[in-house]
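ok here's the first one, seq then struct tokens
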Amino acid sequence: MTVTYSSRVANATFFGFHRLLLRWRGSIYKLLYREFFIFALLYIVLSLVYRFVLSVDQKRFFEKLSLYCDRYAEQIPVTFILGFYVTLVVNRWWNQFINLPWPDRLMFLITSCVQGRDEYGRLLRRTMMRYVNLTSILIFRSVSTTVCKRFPTIEHVVEAGFMTPEERKLFENINSPHLKYWVPVVWFTNLAAKARKEGRIQDSVDLQAILKEMNKFRTWCSTLFGYDWVGIPLVYTQVLSFSLSLCVSLSLSLSLSLSLSLSIIFFFYSVCLFVAEQLINPFGEDDDDFETNWIIDRNLQVSLLAVDEMHMNMPHLTRDIYWDDAAAQPPYTVAAADYCIPSFLGSTTDMGYDPQPQHTTKQHKQPTTHTSSTTQHLNIQPHTCCMHPYKQTVVRSS
């Protein structure tokens, strides 16, 4: 699903980005080759019709129509519309990624705040994390095609262990016409309140922190649901698709041969459109869509491990190797020796300066015309005034 190439571009190398053009999975060639072949085939058919089917008068009419269309083709603001649309789609795609529900912060709070190493304490923590994962599954089932294929019904969710048969009955008995992804959230909050009353959560501050983090998790889920519900207006997508098709059609030359320039125009516009098409819904089955099934597996495994086997399970306290060293310096391997650099002390550290002692002087304001009369009245000689680095001495004439 997700195409990762970060290791290929970790360093700036010669033709680094160009080597990525040779990749097939997730490439634009894989998205575009069918449409390009259809476009080339239709163009060749049109060329044959023009050359061998149309009469002389019909050819002249077609040529005049082509010249007329070519004159006004540049007036269509396709580049602006396409750039704005792709920017909107990419921002929407990234916002959906940063709102993917991850239970890590919740599992840290639960394993530290829900006390008890007995079976009941273990049951509390595991059940709370199971409700968290159940919430994300109910959302992913409604927005992701791959998760919906994996869990097409609630029965499959029960078989996977995210919900018990008793919980399924309670879930189905809730009479609500809306998506009931919020039901496990209510179960979670009720269970947290019960744990507080029983003393398993020893402080109301801890309970508040857990509920606050659960509310953030629910916000992530509701944000994904909102993106799935309210998409980019269909009319904008239709206008863009129609404008691109019209612009490419108006770029036909009178020679009616598949020229390189026309192929570049088709390729550029189609590439941008297909990039937007692939990113507009990242919960599908394209090469660069989100790995939602992997997210479900990872979240369940990590969260249960953190609140169960790792609960209050930590290494023994021991002194580190830098116990008596005030300036700890981890070692470098030979391969990383060039990356050992001195600390940055500011851009003015290496600035040249006069080694002689620097004296601070206070600038003396020149007397104005108004003060000259006062100077004459006091019999002061302005030119005899001397400046001291820290005080001003006025010398009167005798």
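and now the second one, same deal
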Amino acid sequence: KMIGVTKGYEDKVSVEVIDSEKLQELGMNLFHGVGRGAVVPPRAVIVNYKGNPDSDEVEYALVGKGVTYDTGGLNLKPTGYIEDMHGDKGGSVAVIGALQGALELGIKKNVVFACGFAENAIGS
């Protein structure tokens, strides 16, 4: 979804996807560890929005947590809690919404939008 929001705005954004292997190379082992057991490996997505082409200065940065589903690992959550464990993605959803707003409104600021995405489930 985050990358999809940037379609049509390629002249204003650059996108970097940090895959599971690169997360480990960068020493982001805790983040990598959360999602390493899932079918879809963890990754981070960084979108650099260039709203002010006359400046290289980044004026704002928004960072969001995107644990898309959190079982606690091997389904460690008790009954009554597991059904709603998709709430840990709220930070990333807010960042994606802000990115979409910045693009559609054409704000004149340089902003970095970054999200880490992982699923905390084993063999899901």
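notes on #2: Residues 30 and 74 are 17 Å apart (CA to CA). The chain has one domain: 2-121.
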